[in-house]
Amino acid sequence: MTRRRFDPLRPLRLARALVAHSFSEYAAYRMEMVFWVVGGTLPLFMMFLWIELAEQRATGSFSAADFAAYFLLVFLVRHMTPFVPVPELERAIRHGELSAQLLRPLDPYWPMSASQLMDIAHRLPITVPVVIVGMIWSGAWQVIAFEDWPLLVLAVFGAILLHYNLLYCAGLAAFWMERVRGFEGLMWNGYFVLGGGLAPIALFPDLVQQIIVWSPFRYMISFPIEIAIGRVAPADMWFGFALLTFWVAFSIGLMRLLWHRGLRRYAAYGS
Amino acid sequence: MIETTGLSKRYTVYRKEAGFAGSLRAFFHRQHYDVDAVSDLTIRIGAGEIVGFLGPNGAGKTTTLKMLSGLLHPSSGSVSVAGHTPKERNREFLRSIALVMGQKMQLHWDIPATDSFLVLKTIYDIPDSDYRARLDELVTMLDLGDLVNRPIRRLSLGERMKCELAAALLHRPRILFLDEPTIGLDVTAQAAIRNFIIDYNRRYGATVLITSHYMADVTALARRVLVIDLGRLVFDGDLQALIERHSPDKILRVQFAEEVAPERLARFGTLRQIDGLVAEIAVPRAIVARQAADILASLPVADIAIEEPAVEDVIRTVFRKTGAVGKPT
Predict the structure, then answer these.
(1) Searching chain A, which residue's CA lies closest to the CA of residue B83?
(2) Which residue of A4, A106, A266 is in closest CB contact with B123?
(3) B211 neighbors B133 (Cβ within 8 angstroms)
(4) Which of B94, B99, B111 sits opposite A105 (nearest CB)?
């Protein structure tokens, strides 16, 4: 039996091939992308609502510009975080479509991740101009902490990874359950409400804030935005990144556990 | 190359009565029961063999192929394929096998096959020069031409199956598991796929295990057959031996020069059918040559042929004997 030598460039070649393949898929569905972006405009409506409230009376420590910046960034982060893994995995597991991927010497996690990355990349040409125009129109650009951009990039990367992995775990539950969309609903509520999509976490009651800070949801939306608008004190920054790292590590561990246990139960029906 | 010992797979499924009341009961209390899809299967297949895997619907053929390819974890027993345990999905194991399922497309529906081929090239670490040569070879062998550049959904069923085969064989696997690869194809496409499988086997000495409901596939490709029924192996051997064991008769097909009364044929064997000047008579193998000579000497014969019974009939006889026909598994 021949053992292949370790090739450090293989992951890069794989990533390039998978991304190129995903690009082909998304290029085939170019109209769908527009509908996804239009369908994800809820944060913009929330922005107008909170700006109106802020102009009528004091709303915590948030000014109208703060709200504008916050919800424009929620809109951006919302479109940079994936939500496809649950239905995709549910279908693949229930209908046996996973079989084709299991036959290849590559974990199905990677092709789906490449597909998600491409999904995000396809939305950016629409979402980024919307955010830039919104920032200039509302004056929100003035509250952006441009100097913290390296931390922001790290936090956004962590947010995408954490959200994706937790959704992937929810999708893997299809090994045990007929339908797992309920998990998706649960995740969405946690993500959007506790994550700060509905309102900044700083406006929540103190007790709720203390709970949210320890939950994974804060690190999927709110944490990167808090960094972007300069609302994370230096002392809290490391605490935030430590918890983000913990939750990412937890999500990877849980994902691997569910994957290996689930494969034993996989029935490959319909294939 | 492929070895199984006491291989078994048991599924747990739940039963529900029809209608609203049944749904309500099942909501609060589900009744589960076990189904033995494969039981105590022991087989050995050598390198380079093409083996036909036969059995009625639900006999356990596909379940077996899925266990051999590592998709399903066996409930008990052991499997070794090319020295690997399939369920471990070792990378070297996955490089050495391919499973093609005729009823399931593995290529992406909306993009051309070439895009999928490029990903497979990287996944299987196929060098650029080898990739070009292999793709050209597969395109030629399967007569694919420019079809690989069209979205899969624009191709006919036969063309799609050829692309599936090309994708599955790009990494040049040593072991092919083919599950109904010609299902739904017209006779020309079926013949093309069969010729390709024979060609691939000869060129690369690949081991092939094929299931098919088309007996023409089995007779054209496999000398050895495994017959499975209710998850159990009921025959393992030469296709010809299967025919001889379960069909003691040969068929004498006679074309007469003028009409012959059926009662005159009864003494030569069992008259299966007579249609105008053509008659089919089942005759015990041991005396078929003597009876043929007798017919030639005593009746106005224009043409005569000694044939094996149709393999479909033999297989039907096997399943009837084992009681498999019509039973769900």
Answers:
(1) A1
(2) A106
(3) no
(4) B94
Q: Which of B24, B65, B11, B319 is nearest to B207 (CA)?
A: B65
Contact check, Cβ <8 Å, A21/B97: no
pLDDT in tens, B125-136: 899 889 999 898
Nearest to B71 among A10, A21, A266 (CB): A266
CATH architecture of B47-243: 3-Layer(aba) Sandwich (3.40)
Write out chain B residues lying below 8 Å of A16, CB-based. Answer: 122
Residue B103 contacts residue B178 (beta carbons within 8 Å): no
Quote the DSSP letter at residue A217.
Answer: G
Bridging pattern class, strands B278-284 and B249-256: antiparallel
User: Can you tell me which residue has the tokens 């004056």?
Assistant: A139
Minimum CA–CA partner of B116 in chain A: A21
CA distance B325 to B318: 9
Fold exhibited by the domain B249-308 = Alpha-Beta Plaits (3.30.70)
Report residue A35 as tokens.
């509908």
Sign of torsion over alpha carbons B222, A270, B169, B68: negative
Contact B284, B249 (CB under 8 A): yes
How many C-beta neighbours within 10 Å does residue B262 have? 10
Distance, in angstroms, between A118 CA and closest chain B CA? 15
Mean pLDDT for chain B? 86
Structure tokens at A264: 């034993």
d(CA A151, CA A148): 6
Q: How far apart are CA A227 and CA A145, in angstroms?
A: 7
Q: ipTM of this model?
A: 0.76
Nearest-neighbour CA in chain A from B94: distance (Å): 6
3-state class (DSSP) for residue A121:
helix
Yes or no, beta carbons of B11 and A267 under 8 Å apart? yes
Q: Do B122 and A17 touch (CB under 8 A)?
A: yes
SS3 for B157-207 is: HHHHHHHHHHHHHCCCCCEEEEECCCCCCCHHHHHHHHHHHHHHHHHHCCE
Q: Which residue bears the tokens 């492929």?
A: B2
Looking at residue A27, its pLDDT comes to 67
Average pLDDT taken over every residue of chain A: 83
Tokens at B182, concatenated: 């010609």
Among chain B residues, the shortest Cα distance to A5 is held by: B125
Cross-strand pairs, B5: B78
> Mind listing the pLDDT tens digit for each residue in A143-169?
888 888 899 999 999 999 999 999 999
Structure tokens belonging to residue A222: 């709110």
Residues of A in contact with B71 (CB under 8 A): 99, 102-103, 266, 268
Provide the residue ranges of all domains of chain B, joining segments of one domain with +: 47-243, 249-308
The first and second tokens of residue A43, run together, are 């944060």
Q: How far away is chain B from the Cα of A195, in angstroms, using its nearest Cα?
A: 34
Taking the C-alpha atoms of residue A151 and residue A240, their distance in angstroms, rounded to an integer, is 11
Can you list the residues of chain B whose pLDDT is less than 50?
324-329
Helix (H) / strand (E) element for A66: namely: helix A64-80
